[in-house]
Amino acid sequence: MDDPTLRPTRIFVGRETQLSWLSNALAAAQAGQPQVVLIEGEAGIGKSSLVFEFLRAEQGLPVIAASGEAAESVLPYGIVHQLAASAAAVAVGSLAGLRLLAYGPPADADPLAVGVELLALVSSLQGERAIAVVIEDLQWADLPSARALLFACRRLRADRSLVILTGRPAWTARFGEGWARYMTGDPRSSAIRLPGLSIEELSMLCRQLGRSQLSGRAIRRLAAHTGGNPLLALALLAELADDALEAAGADLPAPKSLAGLILPRLAALPRPARDLTHAVAVLGDHCALADAAAVAGIADPTSSLEAAMEAGFLIERQAGLGRSVAFAHLLIRRTVYDGLGPELRQRLHLRAAAALGGNDALPHRVAATHGPNPDLAAELLAAADIAAGAGKLQLAARYLGMAATVTQRGHSRDEFTLSAFERLVQAADVAAAEAARPVVEQLAHSARRDAALGQLAMFEARPSDAIALLRAAWEAGEGEVSARGEAAVGLGQVLGITGAVTEAEMWLDRALSIGTGSELWYDAARCIRSFAYALSGEEAKSQALFADLAEPAASVPLARTDALTYRGIARLFAGDARAAVEDLSLSVQRMTKGLQLRFPGPPLAFLAEAEFQLGHWDDAQTHAELAVALARDADRDFDGAFVHAAAVSVAACRGEWTTAIAHADAAEAGARVFGGLATGFAASARCLLGFARRDPEEALRGVALADAEPSVDRFDSAAALWLRPVQVWALIRTGKFTAAHELLTSFESRAATHSDPGARIFAACLRGTLAMLQGDLTQADEVLQAGRLAAGDLPWPFHRAVIDLQHGRCLARLNRRGAAIETVRAAADAFAALRARPFVHAAEAELSTLGVRSRAGDDPDLPGLTQQELRVARLVGVGLSNREIGAQLYISPKTVEYHLANAFAKLGVRSRHQLVTLTRREDRTAYPN
Fold first, then answer.
1. Cα distance between residue 163 and residue 191, in whole Å
2. Cα torsion through 616, 622, 627, 633, rounded to 10
3. Which of 56, 231, 235, 345 could form a disulfide with 44 if both were Cys (CB 3.0 to 4.6 A apart)?
4. 63-67 and 131-136 beta bridge pairing
5. This model's pTM is above 0.70
């Protein structure tokens, strides 16, 4: 039964332009420039055939492959499982050391952690030739796999890898904006929109089928009727004789989803082959051959599989364990499944349920159910509760959605639908929750409904909608403690961000007052309340909320990691940056290993701030940029102002103006949505940028941004650390001494009551500067000397260097040249160790006025390295392997290898040992304390 209609991949014509495109992409990948190519087109247009033909011509190219399937689009990490199995078949041992891929990522695994392992896997498969990663029908991919894959694609750098994706038009709609932004904005990505076959290509197709007698007119009719769709054209060519295609005035018949062609051919198969094909259609686009045989009732499926493959229905795939079988094309599978009568379909789903057992049987039992089934709904509810208890919220949502389909219309079905939506929101699965929102909005108003919709609105940066919905939830929630708790937490969060601080604190206190301490939302309320205390300068109250949290950080249970994060933030605002790093770095480690946090943005952003204070600027820059990337990848517009503000600090102080300005602009864009606290962080970042550029007008633009938001002065701790001190500096620089004195007096008063040493150091520096410019050098010397003594042994190298530089200027004006040179040189050395180039230049200019040349060779920088090369070099210096470095920096091991080779060449070293020696020598110079 050699029917070309059912074997589209065995006939191929044309597509020369597209094949050339793919060949060029492979050549670039082979040269170490990774490529991601999307082949987009409607069903049956020949996407799979194009990929097959390209790979057939590239003999010896290693390939790992996977494909999406509509029935499995809700199975977490289905695509990733396929890729791992394919890799295991291509290279034995390729999964060694990859914990998540080797055993299959659990449903609640963090896409970030899975993406890191995908990077490592792709890197390990590269040899002399590039590796091809093929994923077909991406529109049916499960969301966790799509996110992990996007994360990996974004971070391919020097890898010899070609990623080929196929998908339907508008396939990105299910996945949020991340994929769409990547495919249109990343230089490594490109798209091929596959059109229908041209008339010339259809003529070639007809000749290959032995239909060379067809006239040009008949072929043009065929092209017009099918739009050049190869699968539809093949179907008609198989159905109609030449005279029917040539007949004038007669309309060509339309294939009815190929059923009229495929089903008779299927009926002509031997009974066992037909039964096996039916079984695979019920189990999905692909499945284990053993499972299909069990459903079909076939003891030995080998001969049946061969018959189905020969007819073009099924193909056999390589798998890590056992044999796997799939349909040759999605349209064929759908046609076969739709052609099953209701009775046969029900019987096969019941057999599938019996063969699979456990929770894997639940979808088939649902498919076999006609009408309400309270017992099955109860089982699904129990499975959902177990999944939720294990933190697998997306899986719980799937079970609850299935429960709704087997429940009678009315209150119970609405409850299941709402519960599924709540789980998606609690998992911060914005794309899936947004897709479900229209259905949920049709449900009757209730506290739970409005609380969940309100929290989704907050994630999507719709603060006005969020506030209205959350208020409605509280009002409607009399007696519903859980719904009211979630509503109060959401209001505390969104009102605090938008600037209604007093009301936000009231809602958080309400949440804490109605909870017992065991609820998930109770811990969230405690975290946000501690943040409000810390920002308002009440550090003791902020830390007291976590008095029950274990010491050291490693003793804190995984379930309390959000609380660990916010304890770290409280410690940061209290001036204990080292303790903050201990807490926050552990939160980040847990997150990168797959733990899903309710608040995923703060750990990285505030760890970056703590590292900035301690002088670990490379780490700070890495973590801040990662915070930005993860917020963007997850479509969490809610975090935008904060993470971009965190990314300004190092870039600005190192004079990386393009990067710093881009982040400052992005922070302000996020602040325009929320106002309030978001404005405070954006304004502070703008002020720091102005300070680093020695541009008081830029700094005052940040001040104007803050002053337009009345609530900003409530946040007089970290958010004000740069805002008000830099405002005083800008006023001094523009000659407005009276205004500077008044603002500085207020700032000094607040700094004296806080435990934040940075505020006290800058207060002294500014007071000394003002005294110098007003001619009182004696007072300036006393104030600056006191500030230097107050800094003492604090591990705050940048802050100490700033006051050292200013004190050196004062000493020079007092004609104490020797002391001035010593003090300014100490500042210059500290700035050089941090690579704070604008400040190095300022210190060198002061030394020049003192008649001193800058020291040649004193810069401990590793010369000529890019930022990423420096990061890789320093991680080599602490003994990490390439794979471990890749996991920390979210790049592939092959990219690590690329950066390391560049570093070796630039530094003139030949071994990791020599590089370790250099980096350790630099670290001793950079961080002497």
1. 12
2. 180
3. 231
4. parallel
5. no
